[in-house]
Amino acid sequence: MKLPDSLRDRLKIPLGHLIPEDQANKSTIQKHLPKNSYLITVGDRTTEKMIDFGLIPSLQIIDNQEKRVRRKPATNDNTYTELVCNNPAAEITPQSIDAIKKAFVSKTPVRLTVTGEEDLLVIPVCIHAPENSLVLYGQPNEGLVIVKITPEIRNKTQRLLDLME
Q: The pTM is what?
C-alpha cells in the first residue's frame, strides 16, 4: 500500500502525547510508561535512546537510517529475536505487516530490521499491538511521541491504513 499525497499532512500530526525534544529525558519518559507495559519503538534514534536509558523495548523496529542517512544500529547486551522485512519508503507492505504480527508472538525482545523505511510501520503496529502496549516514535524536529494503544487508536490507525492506495 502506498502513501497518497493527500495523507501526508495528516501523518505530521502526532498520534499520541508529544514530548518536546529538549524534555525527552529518562525521567520524563518514565512518567508516561506504566509498569509492565509492552514497549515498542519505531525508529533508530528512538530505539537507541530507550536502550541508552536502560528501557529495553519489547519490539524495536529499525532501518539503520536516521533522516535518510545510514547509521549503525543501537546495541545492548541483550540478545533478541531478529526479524527482517522489506518496506520501501512511503509504503506499507504485506510482508512488513506479517513481520509485525510475527514479532508480537515471538520471544522478546524482538528487533525487526527493515530494508527500506520503517516510518509508516507505526500504523500497523498500532493496529496489531497487544493490549497494554505503548508505541514510541520520533516526530521529526519536534520530539518523541508516546502512543497508548486503545480501541480509539486502533480505529484511527486502521482508517489511515484503509486510505492508503
A: 0.93
